[in-house]
Amino acid sequence: GDILWYAGSAVAVSSLRKIPGLTTLGSDQASKLSSSNQDRRLVQAVVAKNGPLVGKSIRDMKFRTRYNAVVLAVHREGQRVHAKMGEVVLHAGDVLLLDAGPDLVREGFALVSILEDSAPPRLSLLVPAITCAVAMIALYTFGVMSLLVAAIFASGVMIASGALSQQEARDAIKWDVIITIAAAFGLSKALQNSGVASFMAEQLVKLGTATNTGEIGLFVGVYLATFLISNVVTNNAAAALMFPIAAEAAAEANISLLKMSYLLMLGASASFMSPFGYQTNLMVYGPGGYVFKDFLNFGFPMQLVQLVVSVAAIAADDLWWLLWIALGGILFVVSLAKVYGISNGMKIWKKNN
To answer: How confident is the model over 269-301, as pLDDT tens digits?
Structure first.
């Protein structure tokens, strides 16, 4: 029953309300709204200068009934108004933080801003949602149905149970990513038809032959080309662009297409050196205050490690287990050094030997 007062942006408030055990002070009033939890959002609204809200208290004007929204907080002249919400008399320029549905009445507001992804959590539906996800994976793993059919089935159950709204399902479709991938498939087909894919594949094979490195040199060449593209476009588009080239190279060098596909998958996902190669890179790029150089400094060593490990794992073939043992040993040593300190780790090693 403790009441906690938080100071922060409205976006931070939308994150706070998703923490289990915390509810907004006006949640009892919000439950009386005609809109469902799925459709409710946090809204910032500025009281208009000559509107009907000025000079009236929230309770007297029956705000919830009239506007189909609940006032969670009032911000006035840079300060939060600390008072019972029902007793606050509104002034022109007040910024209201509202919990409202899509049918919010905008009369009397000079500006209205909806905070996306601020719907209240549906923690009671956590178990059904997890069950659907586990069932989808199980049905696909045991060959009962394809992944596409299982995913559609799971999505339908989540929508029917209320864990996912129809609008949320529509918004989850990233049309820009789909169009980019589709365009990349078209471009990759053009590379095949024009002979560019065959030419590039021949050059990669010649490079491996000239350096006397065999299939390892070819793997390195394909990996480098793929990861360079993935740092400019999305990983899906990079894989679609490089697949015909890699397939031609595998056929000319008499290398398993499955091996080359694994290499392509790893190379396309190695977008560590650019903020534009993957969505999560862009997510931290601005808020974290990073510059392009930071991605190069941190991503280049990671890129080298993944290059070496990926090529070694694929080229090892039947001896892949030796690589896993070596990597496991390195991980153990690094973990030991982190836990006990490098000096203590060396002391333990010397003591045991």
So the answer is: 877 887 776 767 777 777 778 888 888 888 888
Tokens describing residue 40? 């409710």
| pTM score above 0.85 | no
Q: What is the 3-state composition of the chain as percent helix, strand, coil, each rounded to the nearest 5? A: 60, 10, 30
Q: At what angle do helices 214-230 and 292-316 cross, to 10 degrees?
A: 150
Token pair 């009032």 in the structure block, residue: 74
Question: Given this model, what pLDDT does residue 263 score?
Answer: 87
Backbone φ/ψ region at 242: left (φ over 0), alpha (ψ -120 to 50), beta: alpha
Distance (Å, whole) CA 210 – CA 231: 27
Q: What stretch of H or E contains 100?
A: strand 95-100
Q: Is the pLDDT of residue 318 over 70?
A: no
DSSP class of residue 48 equals P
307 phi and psi angles, rounded to 5 deg = -60, -50
- Enumerate helices (H) and strands (E) in the chain, giving the number of each: 15, 5
Q: Tens digit of pLDDT for each residue in 94-127?
A: 888 888 877 778 888 888 888 777 777 777 777 8
Coil/strand/helix, residue 35: coil
- Give the CA-trace dihedral at 173, 267, 287, 45, to 10 degrees: 0
Which has the closest alpha carbon to 313: 326, 301, 329, 302? 326
| Structure token digits, residue 41 | 């959002």
How far apart CA 317 and CA 62 sit, in angstroms, is 73
- DSSP, residue by residue, 135-203: HHHHHHHTTSS-HHHHHHHHHHHHHHHTSS-HHHHHHT--HHHHHHHHHHHHHHHHHHHHTHHHHHHHH
pLDDT for residue 344: 56
* Beta carbons within 8 Å of 91's beta carbon, 6+ residues apart: 47, 54, 55, 76
235 neighbors 241 (Cβ within 8 angstroms)? no
pLDDT attached to residue 3: 73
Beta-bridged to residue 42, according to DSSP, are 99, 115
Residue 87: DSSP 8-state: G
Mean pLDDT of 40-56: 84
**How is residue 277 annotated by DSSP?**
S
48: left (phi over 0), alpha (psi -120 to 50) or beta: beta
